[in-house]
Design a protein that fits this description.
The complex is a heterodimer of chains A (508) and B (322). Chain A is α/β, with parallel strands linked by helices. Chain A is built from 18 helices and 22 strands. The radius of gyration of chain A is 24 Å and the shape is globular. Chain B has 322 residues and is an all-alpha fold. Classes of the chains: A alpha/beta (508), B mainly alpha (322). The complex binds adenosine-5'-diphosphate and magnesium ion.
């Protein structure tokens, strides 16, 4: 463990009064007690990590602190003085800035306008915005982060990682005393994350307080001076970094011992379900893949190496320009809906956009892919759908307060389970899972692994795309490795190791 | 291979042509075609006519652009134009000064704008339904005030204003250009402009930035109605009479102009100049067909085709540039 404080975080002086205190904050949503009397002390110059599973209440805590939600009970103190934070402007005035988990960029404003949204007054001249000055200021902020983005680019034209970096730039530009980051590294690359960590180190040296929300143990160990663990809306414990081991932290997060890092148990695969030979699309060339019943097949490779394109092509979501696909020995139907009927299921990378209808409830989402087989007469029966959904919620352990909870308000892990429920209901036999555990916490991850095991035991075939090598190695029986839109290797049994994958991905 | 950051590049000189929206291309084509078909089309009198007609349409299409940028819609704009004209006319007949009459129309228009805005921004009712409702309300009031008859015989001061010129430019065109300049500054050089775009793009982001997003949202409707209300002066100046139903349908033409110019109904994507291109395209088409004595119902067909063609051109080019 590199105990050397990578973030430059000196053990903060806890004798000093905290810069910011949250005291007994309580918050309920209809049917969910999201925060239970949460108290938190945040010290200047300290990185305070808030650790918790999805749905633990981390984001709600931040939104309450920022005045975006009104707390039901409790209050906030800054430097020992009680303050009222009724709306975001109040929090800003107190020197609090937040990098939100959901993106808060405006698509058709440019980067500079987004960074200074709401703070344009600083650049006003005779009531008009001096846009040259604003772009120059934005340039400085971006340069500080080592970003060469054009400040005139619309947010709509940025990729997810770029948007996240602009969010970070936006928060940094506020020169806040307390900077809150809600899972800032969820969507960015290693290199960008390094820059962020360097920036955090610089800020703590300037005595800024950082509240860092994460569920990545590596970051927690590297950055956190003090760590507060949240579970089911309540603080489990609040410790200094060296007072608790990683295992204990994971334990505290999920509330049960983490039975992680098991050795892979060999499975006995059955007949081939899918056989693809030499398929090409606009973005792929010569992909050959076989998936049998009762096995988990990995697709490894860097982001952008064509893994997502492979599952989309197999699923029928992208047109194929060459090659052939066989399903259970016979030629696969060409249209997507026929492939779904033949038992194929896709859990897309971007579950919020492609996997779910966020404004609809769990029932509507979970039943949408199976209406054709459940209601063959054409008449919909709400009672039957209701029954099925309750069954699925129980089977998958979805944490929700009923079948009618809007999917938007579920945590990431539970949303992912709803996508799975949709395909379970449709009786799928071949599951294509694109980054199934991305943005999902340790506890929900373990549950998703368990569900994958159940699927395979039931005779389904599963394809898993994952950027996390340990996960891939542990979960899969064998894996194809991709580079530059081609398959460059196949690893199984003892050959399937993190090192072997890396060599295939990186070398040559 | 295309670089992922391709879309970030600013259009250079070589890319200028590809930056002209579908409406612009169709406008140029129509100008050429009508000129060839009948040279009278490019006579000075006719071009001034086109300018006069387009400027009234613009008075509605420009504020409509702001409203559409907020992912909204104002179906009551045409009815308000008619009502406001009737109010000015009746006030003048009752012996009010021109200023007082206009102030009255302004006040009532603003109040209607505030009604639309409160219902849409604060009560989050759909703009389509709200403005459909207020459209009926306004139209009804205008009809009751006039028994459905045109109102005329008031002071010719308004007509005089309409026919006056600033140097060589007819006043209505001057007013429309001034409005364009003012709204351009507002949209692209003031905080409020950023906020208008943000409401359509991500209202939550605006709220989280500490801005009273609902108030901005409301303001857009108030501003839009205020402009439309004052535009009634140009409308009644043209014929020196007010007709309660004369504005009906103008809202659709204005919406068509905005969309024709490339402004989208989603996410605050669009640009103000698009409304100018759109309004000119529609007006030129109308005017050209008139000169070629095409039946007026057939003109409506042509406007529909124009709209769809412009959308197809934009879509095709977007596809091609990928
Ligand atoms: N706006 C909301 N309405 C209803 N329930 C919500 C809302 N926001 C969050 N919740 C619920 O509150 C709980 C905590 O959510 P959240 O703070 O987002 O968790 P975390 O950020 O730790 O993953 C979850 O059960 C979630 O479903
Ligand atoms: Mg969260």
């Amino acid at each position: 463990m590199p105990a050397a404080t990578a973030a430059g975080g000196h053990p903060a002086d806890h004798a000093a009064a905290p810069l910011l205190r949250l005291i007994d904050i309580d918050k309920s949503f209809p049917g969910v007690h999201a925060l239970r009397s949460v108290s938190l002390d945040i010290h200047a110059g300290e990185v305070h990590v808030i650790l918790g599973q999805n749905g633990a209440g981390k984001s709600t805590l931040i939104k309450t602190l920022y005045g975006a939600h009104a707390a039901d009970k409790g209050h906030i103190e800054v430097e020992g003085r009680r303050v009222a934070v009724a709306r975001p402007a109040d929090a800003s005035a107190l020197g609090i800035a937040v990098i939100f988990q959901e993106f808060s960029l405006v698509p058709y404003l440019d980067i500079a306008q987004n960074i200074y949204l709401g703070r344009e007054a600083a650049f006003a001249r005779f009531g008009l915005i001096d846009s040259a000055a604003m772009h120059a200021a934005a340039r400085t902020i971006l340069d500080d982060l080592g970003l060469d983005y054009d400040t005139h680019a619309y947010a709509a034209d940025l990729g997810v990682a770029q948007q996240q970096m602009v969010e970070i730039a936006k928060a940094l530009s506020q020169n806040a005393r307390v900077l809150v980051m809600d899972e800032p590294t969820a969507a960015i690359s290693e290199r960008e994350a390094e820059r962020l960590f360097a920036t955090i180190a610089r800020l703590t040296q300037k005595n800024v307080a950082i509240v860092y929300i994460s569920h990545r143990m590596k970051e927690v160990q590297m950055l956190g001076d003090r760590i507060t663990i949240l579970r089911d809306g309540a603080v489990v414990t609040s410790v200094l970094r060296d007072e608790m081991s990683q295992t204990e932290m994971v334990g505290a997060m999920i509330g049960r011992p983490s039975g992680s890092q098991l050795a892979r148990t060999p499975r006995a695969p059955g007949d081939p379900i899918l056989f693809a030979r030499g398929i090409s699309t606009a973005k792929l060339s010569d992909i050959s893949i076989e998936i049998r019943a009762g096995e988990v097949v990995g697709l490894a490779g860097l982001v952008g190496s064509g893994r997502t394109e492979v599952v989309r092509a197999l699923f029928g979501a992208d047109p194929i320009t060459g090659g052939e696909i066989a399903l259970s020995g016979s030629r696969a139907p060409t249209t997507l809906d026929a492939r779904v009927r033949a038992g194929m299921a896709l859990l897309p990378e971007d579950r919020k956009r492609e996997g779910l209808a966020l404004p609809l409830d769990i029932r509507d989402n979970a039943t949408v892919a199976s209406l054709w087989r459940r209601f063959t007469s054409g008449w919909f029966s709400p009672a039957a759908a209701e029954r099925d959904t309750r069954g699925l919620i129980a089977q998958l352990g979805i944490a929700a307060h009923g079948t009618h909870q809007t999917v938007r308000t579920l945590s990431g892990g539970n949303q992912q389970k709803v996508v799975l429920a949709k395909w379970l209901a449709a009786g799928s036999r071949l599951f294509l899972l694109d980054e199934p555990t991305r943005g999902v916490d340790v506890g929900a991850k373990a549950e998703i692994y368990r569900l994958i095991d159940q699927l395979v035991d039931g005779g389904a075939g599963v394809v898993v795309i994952s950027s996390e090598l340990p996960e891939l190695v542990q979960l899969c029986d064998r894996a194809y490795v991709m580079r530059d839109h081609r398959i460059v290797g196949h690893l199984d049994d003892d050959a399937l190791t993190e090192r072997a994958i890396l060599e295939l991905v990186v070398h040559q | 291979m295309t670089a992922p950051t391709q879309s970030q590049q600013r259009p250079g000189a070589g890319q200028f042509f590809s930056a002209i929206p579908g409406a612009g291309i169709l406008l140029i084509l129509m100008l050429a075609l009508f000129t060839i078909a009948n040279p009278r089309f490019v006579s000075q009198t006719n071009l001034v006519n086109v300018g006069l007609q387009a400027s009234l349409l613009l008075m509605i299409a420009l504020p409509m652009t702001l409203i559409i940028l907020t992912e909204g819609l104002d179906l009551s704009a045409g009815a308000l134009l008619g009502l406001s004209g009737v109010i000015v006319a009746e006030a003048l007949l009752a012996g009010w000064s021109v200023f007082a009459a206009c102030a009255m129309a302004f006040a009532i228009s603003t109040a209607f704008g505030a009604l639309n805005g409160v219902l849409i921004a604060y009560l989050t009712l759909p703009a389509f339904v709200v403005t459909l409702g207020t459209m009926g309300l306004m139209q009804g009031i205008a009809l009751v005030m006039t028994n459905g008859d045109p109102v005329g015989g008031f002071t010719p001061a308004i007509e005089t204003f309409y026919r006056s010129q600033l140097w060589i430019f007819p006043m209505p065109i001057v007013v429309a250009v001034a409005l364009y300049a003012a709204l351009w500054l507002l949209l692209y050089r003031t905080r409020l402009g950023n906020y208008v775009i943000a409401i359509g793009g991500n209202k939550d982001a605006l709220r989280l930035a500490g801005i009273r997003a609902n108030l901005v949202h409301l303001a857009v409707y108030v501003l839009g109605s205020a402009i439309v209300g004052l535009s009634a002066v140009l409308l009644i100046g043209r014929t020196n009479s007010a007709h309660p139903t004369v504005g009906i349908g103008m809202e659709f033409e204005a919406i068509a102009a905005v969309v024709l110019g490339g402004t989208s109904f989603e996410k605050g994507q669009g640009w103000l100049f698009g409304a100018v291109l759109g309004a000119l395209a529609i007006t030129v088409l109308r005017n050209g067909l008139n000169i070629l004595s095409v039946d007026s119902s057939l003109q409506v067909v042509c406007i529909g085709i124009l709209l769809i063609l412009a959308l197809l051109i934009d879509r095709a080019r977007k596809h091609y540039s990928r």
